[in-house]
Each structure stands twice: as C-alpha cells, then as structure tokens.
Amino acid sequence: MADTTYPTDTLLALDFGTATTRAMLFDVVEGSYRFVACGEAPTTVEHPYYEASEGMRHALVELQNITGRTLLDGNTHLLVMPATPDGVGVDAVAVTSSAGPAVKTLLVGLLPGVSVESARRLAGSGYLTLMDILSLGDRRRTEQQFDAVLNAQPELILVAGGTDNGSREALVKLLETVALACHLLPTPTPPKLLYAGNPVLGDKIKEMFGGAAHVYTAPNVQPELGEEVFGPARAELAKILEAHRLGQIGGFQDLAQMAGGRIYPTAQAEGQIVRYLNRTLNSPGGVLGVNVGSASTSVAAAFKNELYLSVRSDLGMGANVAALLNETTVEQVARWLPFEASATAVREFILNKSAHPHTLPADLNDLHLENAIAREVLSAGLRTAHARWPASVQGRRSDLLPRIDLILGSGAVLSRAPRPGVAALILLDALQPVGVTHLMLDPHHVTAALGAIAHTHPMTVVQALDSAFLSLGTVISPVGEARPGSVACRVKLVMEGGQEMSAEVKFGSLQVLPLPLGQDGKLTLKPRGGIDVGFGPGRGKIIPVTGGAVGVVIDARGRPIAFPQAAGERQELTSEWLLKVGGLV
Amino acid sequence: MAYIPVTSHATLLTTLRRERMLPVPGEVFAQPGERVEAGDLIARATVPDEHRILDLVKMLEVSKDKTASFMVKQDGEAVKKGELIAVRKTLMGIVVLPVASPVDGVLMASGDGKALVAAVSKPFELRAGVPGNVVNSFQGRGVVIETTGALLEGVWGNGKENFSVLRVLGNGPQDALLAEQIELGLRGTILAVGVVQDDHAFKQLADVAVNGLIVGSLKADLLPAVRKWNIPVMVTDGFGAQGFSTPAYNLLVSNTGREVWLNAQAWNRSVGARPEAIIPLPSPGQAPAAPPDGQALEAGKHIRVVRGTEAGQTGTVVALSDKAVALPSGVRARVATVKLDEAEALAAIPFANLELLE
C-alpha cells in the first residue's frame, strides 16, 4: 500500500501584487526544502472587493489543483494551519505585498545633495510617491512651504538632517512650518512621520507635532558627514509601511496574524535575498535584483553586503506604464522593435496598456512592443537606482554598470517570456552589464517569498534556492572602442566531456555558445588590445562557466549598445539578436 | 478556479449611488430624503487659495506669550484685506502697532507668536452634478445621491465634469470627427463621436465651445491638449482609431437629446472611481438593479475584447479553458472561446484580455 502521509514541514508564501496574487508552496522533498508550485489569481484588494482574501482563495484553489494537495477546509474554505497528519494544510505562512496605492510622502531635509539626498534614498526603498521636498535650499517663502505641505496631503513625512550632535535650529524651523500645516490637514488620519536625523531632536519633534502626526524615530541616516547608514531606518520605514497597509487593505490584519504578525513589503523582501546572494557569492562584484512589476519597478543592489534598494512606485508595466512617456521618447522604445512602428502607434500602445493594465500580448508584434517597453521601464528604474548608489560602487563610468556578478530578474514580463532567451535579452538590453555576469530568472516569482521566509526559516531559503530560480547563463560583455565588425574577443569553450568550441566575436555583435543547463565548462577569453572583458583592457583569462537555459553569451554590442540609423538595418539587427539567443517564437 | 476580470458598464437602465464630497470640511445643505437637481448647490467650504503667516512677536514688539492679549479677531473669523487682526497701543495710545490682514480671508489660527491667515477669494461650491435623491449625508463633508438612468464607463478622463445635453455625431461607432461636421449648433452640448484623430477638427471643436466630449478612441498625440481643455473629455475604449464598442454607441444614440452628466474623473482603481457618463432616466415602479460588478468570467457572459487584433469587439463567452495554452505570441495563458458579435467564427481570447460588459 502506498504511503499517503505527507511531511508536515510545509510552508506557504503569499505575495499580493497590484495585479496578481500568488500562493507558493515549499515543502521538504528528500530531506531538503524545495519550491513545489505556484497558484495565481487576480488581486482583489481594490474595488469592488477591497478584500485580499478573495484573490488569495482563488490562488490557493489553483495551487490545490496543481499540486493535488488540500490546503483549504472543504466547509469553511479557510486555509488549514497547521497541517494535519494526513497532509492537509500548511505549517507556516509568510506574506509579502506590493499592492495598494503608493504612500503619499513629503521629504524634509536640511541641505540638498546631503540630508535631502539621504531622505530621498531612504524613500526610494518603499512604495512611496514623492509629493514635495522641503529643505534649506527651498527658495519658497515659509507660507508657500506651508501651502505645499497642505497641497501634498502627505500620509508619510520622512525627515533627515543634521549629523549626530550637529545643527539643530534650521531643521526645527523647517519642521515648525510642517507641524503647523499638519494641524490643518483635511485628511481623516494624521500622517506618520519618520525622523532619522540628529538624535538629540527626537523628543523635541514629538512634542512639536503633538497629535498632528504619529512620530517615529530611527537612528540617524547620516551620523557623520559623508557616512550613510540606512539599514535601521529602512527597517523602521518598512514597519511603518506595513502598519499603514494593515490598516488600509481588507484582510491584511488576519493574514498578518497567520504570518507571525508581519507582512513584508515585496521590494524589501527581495532585497534580503539579493543581499544574501551577495554575501554567499563573496566575490568582488555586486548582485543586482530587478523586478518589473505591474505598478512599480524595483532595483535591489548589494555590494560588499550592503543593500541599496530603489523602488519606482510611479513606473511599471501596468497602469503606471504611461509614466514612461515622461522618462524617454517613443523612438527609444521603438528602436528595440524588429518591425516598423510609428511614434503615434507606440504612444497609443503604451496608453492602451495603461488603460488595460492586466492584459497579455496576444500576437508576436504585441509581444515585441511589450518587451520593448519593458526594456525602457527597467532601464529607467536602473538609472534612478544607479544615481542613488554611493560613489564607491557606482563604477568607473557614470554610463556603465559597475561589476555585477549576478543579475536576478523578476516580474511577469520576464517570467512569462515564451523563451528563456527573450527574458535574457530584455535583461541584457535594459541593464547592459559589463565584464562577466551570471543571469538568473525568477520564473515563479519566489524571490520576495524567500526573503520573507528567511526571517523565520532561513534553512528553507538556503535549500530552496536551487529549485526556485532558473539559470539563464553566463554573459561576457566586452567594453571598449573598436571598429564595428572587427574582432573584439576570441573565445574558446571547453566542455566537461572535452568538446571544444571556438569563436571570433566581432565588435557590435552578440554570440551564444551552447552550454546545457547545469553543465560546467572552461571559457578562454582573449580580448583585443583596449577591449576589457572584466580583467582590464586587453587582458584575457580562463574562467569557469556553468551552462544555463540560454548558454554562454558574448555580448559585444558595445556599451551603450549602438544602433544603425537606418530603420531597416536596425530591425534586422534586433531580429538577429533575438535569433541568436533562441528568442524567436 | 474563477477568474474575475474588470467589469465595464454600458447599462441602459440602472440605479446608481454617487458620493459628492467637499475637498475640505464645510457646510452641507442637502439633507437625506431631499430631491436635488444637477445644478443645485449642495455644500460649500472655505478652500484657501494660499496662506499668510504673520509674525506677531515682531509686529507687536512683545514676547510670544503676550501676543494673545492684543488680538482683536478670533480664530475662524472672516477678515478683509487691511482689517486689523491685532493691535498694540503704547505710550498712552500715541504709538500704535497694528497687525492688519494682508488678504481677504479667514484667520485660521493664532498662537505661539504667530497668526495664520487663509486667503479665500471665493468659497468652494459643490453642485449636485446629477439629479436624484439624497440618500445619505456625511456631516460637514458631503452626500450620497441616488439616481436612475443609463451608465457608460470610460477608460480615461481629463478630470473635469459637466451636465448638459447629449448629441451624437456620425453614423456609426467607428466614425471619425470631421471638421465640416462642426457647426455653431453644437455649442453647449456634450458631444459623442467614435473617433477623434484630426487635429484641425479637434481645434474647431474647442473653438465652438462644446460642454464636453465623449469619444470612443482618441489619437494619443491629442492628449496634451485634451488635458489642458477646461471641459470634460472621456475616452470610453482606448487610444487609436477603434471607436466605440457597439453597446456604448447604441447607448449614446438611444439617448441623444437627453441631458447627461459627464464626470471625466481619472480612473482610480483603488476606490473604483471611473470616468463615466450618467444619463438620468425615470424609472416608474420598482427601481432597477444596481450595476453588477466583480463577477467571475463564465460561459454566457457578455464581454468586450480590450487587446489584440479583436480589440474593441464585443461577444459572448462560449467556453473557458481549464489549462493554459500557448497564444500566437508564445505567452501561455488560459483562454475563453468567444462568439464575437461581428464575426461568424469563434475566437480564442486570453482571459486577461477580456472585460465583462454589463
């Protein structure tokens, strides 16, 4: 008789996105945690449901159908927890969310470029909409600043300013104006204020605002001039945003109870995994995690175990995609298309996608358009993030990424790509890494889930990583000046079985060497003089590589990627790139 | 597993409730049970244009804690420009230190050595917008008005609203606005037309002073001008040349000549506020049902396709797939088999590209 008992170490991760609610199951398989399956359904936190559990229930029903496991009680339709001995239900739940409107935020700092920049970086780690900034550099009269606060109607006020034991009076004067305005805000609940400046002012600020704002304090983000410490303030901000969402979204209170009291912001949870990967790799380069979502685009970068999180809550692939028209030109979008499209047609496509944010590409041209937009959305997200990284990690050129050892791509536009090569090419085109980089895809949207689980079940994360992500392959991106068509780099790949493959990669081209998923090999790189493949101009090396779903990619298209002026040639080239990465459907 | 798509309404007769709220607390005149017409004033509030902060310590030449004794106006009191707010007389009245209001408005607050004056040029007046019965009120904030009529929802609005007579131009849902159709007789109407693509015709429309525009689809390049337009513009279907869906067009044609409330508010998905046109209609006897929302996709449902080559077409769901299939784009998704109203053959459309049409 078959053993029908199940282990009881079952973990459920729930992620509430703006468009989609996902239920992901992790379980012990042969002594080790593995990702099992993901069920999804449209999110129901907005009109007409205003209740997260409705979408969650549909996602769980799909997960039940996929796995054959019963998770919901047959009578009450509620999640069974803890799991019963016969394998019904789950033992633990972790919840992440990026759903709900971005929180209207006012920034207050002393000096533009100093504490204002610190406040801006702190704000960049949450799902926030920046309404206004008050600082000493603000040329508006006090009355105008007062009106600006009233017009902003902030739900959150982030204050930074003054090093430890530094200036006090100037910040107090600015905050007096803010406090006065907060007393007159017509909003039903007072805003939340997070103060992360000179700690001696904490009590004074609480007193100043009285009941006009809920004041929270965090350690100074700039304790000394030139030194920034974001970790504690970012954690405090995450807690404030969690509390805000708990009171705002129907069903979240109950969910938080099931999940040990916490609903982690998705970007924060993803950041945890990016930092973990950076620590685990222990290599000189950084790790980059990008998520192109429906309402937002986030970029999490970790260098030397320090996390830099940047969330663009105003830019995504859904309702917020129209904001792309303020970021770039439609010609920049159209350059990625393998067919002719007028500027008006591209603009209309973007606006229609914004009007119908949950829709899918029906035919090939539709897919190419959507993916072209994704490249520019991701590129805009990266520009914002890159500008917020400290000079020590920005790289040697402002238009180039610093050394990144691993890129992890998330978001529906990547995960539903019909071929792994399509997702890889979107990442390469948008991010344009340099040197040697490994590309990974999060096909099941589990990055945030793992980040949330890491707080309570760290071993699950360590064990489940392999089953959660798809390796796309290693990319070598030579950088330097050369004539298009001239040899940029000679490469030789020796596979485990001894088979060899050599190629001369021409400047301006993209080559793929097939190395099956999981198979190891040795790659010999011999760049021409002046071309840098990651080890200095003209310097070659033999490096170990592991195959991915795409293979080993030599991206010698230049940085930034150069396009022919003639439309026909450009379209031919973009088609060729797709063909090379196996991205043609 | 149920799939819940967006529901769009092109409903011929329904019962609707709409909140009409002040931007800041004020005075609400309309009471539950009262009948209101579109132009009726239902609430009023003082919405400051700007604020002025007066430094009483400096102007009265006294310490912070003494300023209160020199105030001649109370918090909340109306003030005229030049009118005294506070005054201090010294040296037996020989030296007078006056603090006059710099603007017409209201003394909002005083204390801590400062006075805050709100400049108010005119009060904010809230009109009913749509005729109906007041069924609920929120003290100092606004009311809920119930009405019966036709409802047409849009996908984009420029944030304005108006109430006027509806006029439909053209002979079909995909007819484009032509410059030669625009004549003075359109002045003051809310105009409905399938497609607006022609820049010249659009400019002429602005010149003739219509009171609003309902358009099936709009040329994207006209958006900046439409945003600046001071009259409401609602796009019902999208951007491009697809025009109205047939149910939307039929609804408009059958109500031409009637009054319509065009509320071209932006689509706020969090709270479900959409750009909409409401045509008030009498409903003798039992009130019609409220418009359905949040229903699952299932066989027999009337739908509109919102993306792909069939975008803009309407039809009826015949069957739903259990499993995801590969679309021509290569993307895998569950699809509905749909009988389109304008086609013989059945079409397979991904769930995500369908809206329920009620």
Task: Offer a few descriptive terms.
heterodimer; A: 585 residues; globular; disordered N terminus; B: 358 residues; mainly beta; 6-stranded mixed β-sheet; 8% helix
Question: Any overview of this molecule?
Answer:
By secondary structure, chain A is an alpha/beta fold. Helices cover 33% and strands 25% of the residues of chain A. Chain A has 16 helices and 22 strands. The longest helix of chain A has 25 residues, at 364-388. Chain A is globular and about 75 Å long. The model of chain A is unreliable at 1-8 (pLDDT under 50). The model of chain B has no long low-confidence stretch (mean pLDDT 94). The relative contact order of chain B is 0.16. By secondary structure, chain B is mainly β. In chain B, strands 2, 4, 13, 14, 15, 16, 17, 18, 19, 20 and 21 form an 11-stranded mixed sheet that branches. In chain B, strands 1-28-22-23-26-27 form a 6-stranded mixed sheet, with no helix packed on it. Chain B has a 4-stranded antiparallel sheet with strand order 6-11-10-7. Chain B contains 4 helices and 28 strands. At the A-B interface, β3, α1, α3, α4 and α10 of A face β6, β19 and β25 of B.
Number of strands of chain B: 28
Global morphology of chain A: globular
Beta-strand share of residues of chain A: 15-25%
Give the overall pLDDT of chain A as a whole number.
92
Q: Roughly how many Å is the radius of gyration of chain A?
A: 25 Å
Secondary structure: helix percent of chain A: 25-40%
N-end to C-end Cα span of chain B: 22 Å
Structural class of chain B: mainly beta
Mean pLDDT of chain B: 94
Poorly predicted regions of chain A are: 1-8
State the helical fraction of chain B: under 10%
Low-confidence runs of chain B (pLDDT<50, min 5 residues)?
A: none
Strand content of chain B: 35-45%
From the alpha carbons, calculate the radius of gyration of chain B and give it in angstroms: 27 Å
Oligomer: heterodimer
Q: Main beta sheet of chain B, described? A: 11 strands, mixed
